[in-house]
Amino acid sequence: MQQKYIFSLYHLFAIFKIKSGFAAFNKNIIMKRIPSPLLTVLILIAGVACSRSSGPPNTSPKPDFRILGYIHSYSNLQADFQQVDLSLITDLNIAFINPDAQGNFPLNPEYANVLPAAHNKNVRVFFSIGGGSPPPHLEKLLATAEGRDKLVEGIVQLLDAYAFDGVDIDLENDLINAHYAPFVYKVAKAVKARGRLVTAALAKWNSDKIADSTLAEYDFINVMSYDATGPWKPDKPGQHSPYSMAVNDFRYYTETRGIASRKILIGLPFYGYGFNGAPVSMNYKQIIKDYPGSEFKDEITIGNGTLYYNGITTIESKTRFALDNGASGVMIWQLLQDSQDTKSLLKVINTVVNQP
After folding, report:
1. Pairing state between β 305-308 and 299-302
2. 217-255 b/e (C-beta count within 10 Å ≥ 16 → b)
3. Does the predicted TM-score (pTM) go above 0.85?
4. Contacts of 221 (CB under 8 A, 6+ apart)
5. pLDDT per position as a tens digit, 67-81
6. Which residues, 6+ apart, have CB-to-CB distance to 218 below 8 Å?
7. How confident is the model at residue 350 (pLDDT cuts 50, 70, 90)?
8. Which distant-in-sequence residues (6+ apart) come within 8 Å of 106 by Cβ?
9. What is the 3-state secondary structure (H, E, C) of 89-111?
10. Torsion sign across C-alpha atoms 10, 14, 18, 22
């Protein structure tokens, strides 16, 4: 009698149909053939077995938290793209793709290779227009209805030519003017009609010039929570991207401007600025190479000057703030400035995001 109720794991899994990590079972078979006490034990065993994974731990970003990285390639996008670990990001912004004087966006065979590779890793790809130093003719194109129409036409053509997931509008400084809103409306209407996304790179200091109705056109806003000071302000040395700036910027957009937190990405810099004789600018990769131990600091003394940046601890804190406050994610400027070793800031972000 007792022998009849001895089940091996083989019999157990014959009864349980394992599919997609969940156990679906035939209730009638189990209830008829196995006594209740033994059934309870077997279910507990199966639950433990199904919860164990024989594969490596998941180091990819959580699906509901975005890790967006800009890639700013000066010459060879495809070669630079090979440096990016796509398993550590959810979104990639190619910076910058700007039009010619007639409003046409250049086609580039590199895009035909980069986008499929990213899409195969479930990474969305955007192209960013504008930037801190856009071509002079961009302002002229934006200044007229005809020019704006031409730009929108070019944006749509580029989206369709390479299956970009959206366009990122990074218009700054004098380009945030009376022509900004009409341009954004036209872009949003054309791009969203194709099921694509429209995002913006914005800073708190210039967003006061933008109406709430214009900000509402964006699917996501990449907040540039850096460059509070820099070489252009030699009389104001200090941290250009403190933790407090990330917090204040987030609260400005979510509280003062009423934008849902799920649409906000907090910007993280992978570079630093120097004052009083220190190097004017250095990326994180070079900083930790030249100054061992600097990865856990936010500033280092170089000669009589100081270099300010974000080290591991600050990047951890900002990422945790984004998680805890329901932000859409974090944005990085830029991926090529990161190290490729265990001190990688991108890996630090992923570690924080994937903590239980």
Report:
1. antiparallel
2. bbebbbbbbbbbbbeeeeeebebbbbbebbbebbebbbe
3. no
4. 199, 200, 202, 215, 253, 259, 263, 264, 265
5. 999 999 988 999 999
6. 169, 184, 188, 198, 199, 200, 263
7. very high
8. 97, 100
9. CCEEEEECCCCCCCCCCCCCHHH
10. negative
Pairing, β 166-170 against β 124-130: parallel
Residues 311-336 have pLDDT tens digits of 999 999 999 999 999 999 999 999 99
| CB-based burial label for 269 (10 Å; 0-12, 13-18, 19+) | buried
Amino acid identity at 211: A
- Helices 312-324 and 345-353, packing angle to 10 deg: 30
Residue 73: CB atoms within 10 A of its CB come to: 19
Amino acid at 99: P
> Tokens representing 171?
């218009």
Whether residue 275 is predicted with pLDDT greater than 90 in this model: the reply is yes
d(CA 41, CA 187): 60
**CA 336/CA 46 separation, integer angstroms:** 46
Q: Which residues contact 91 (CB under 8 A, 6 or more apart)?
A: 66, 67, 68, 69, 123, 124, 125, 126, 165
Cα distances from 291 to residues 250, 294, 307, in angstroms, run 32, 6, 11
Sign of the torsion angle spanned by Cα atoms 289, 291, 293, 298 = negative
Indicate the residue type of 150.
K
- pLDDT greater than 50 at residue 50: no
Contacts for 214 with CB less than 8 Å, ≥ 6 apart: 180, 181, 184, 185
Residues 6 or more apart whose Cβ sits within 8 Å of residue 173 = 132, 206
From 163, 127, 73, select the one nearest 82 (Cα to Cα).
73
Indicate the SS3 state at residue 76: coil
CA–CA distance, 332 with 29 (Å, rounded to integer): 55
Instruction: Give the residue carrying structure tokens 């998680």.
Output: 323
